[in-house]
Amino acid sequence: MYAIVEIAGQQFKAEKGKRLFVHRLEADVDAAVEFDKVLLIDNDGDVKVGAPTVDGAKISCKVLSHPRGEKVIVFHKKRRKGYRKRNGHRQNFTELLINDIAF
To answer: What angle (nearest 5°) sits at the alpha carbon of residue 26, between those of residues 15 and 7?
Structure first.
């Protein structure tokens, strides 16, 4: 059983017991959060597709941590002009544990 859920503007495939890394949420560690923007549910071949969401479906999660992603190097260069600019970035994430998929 899995569900496609929209969290913070992005779509994720959620299965019970799996961990998701989503963009930073304003929730404390060990807090329970629920998401009701469920777009699709597949229950062993019985597929329910929402228009745009499945009515009454919810995903229950637990916040495990707030890690930071790997460093991404942003490098700009214009050839033959002597222009080079280097910058780095680390994205903030929230690690979620999927507890239950209710529909």
So the answer is: 35
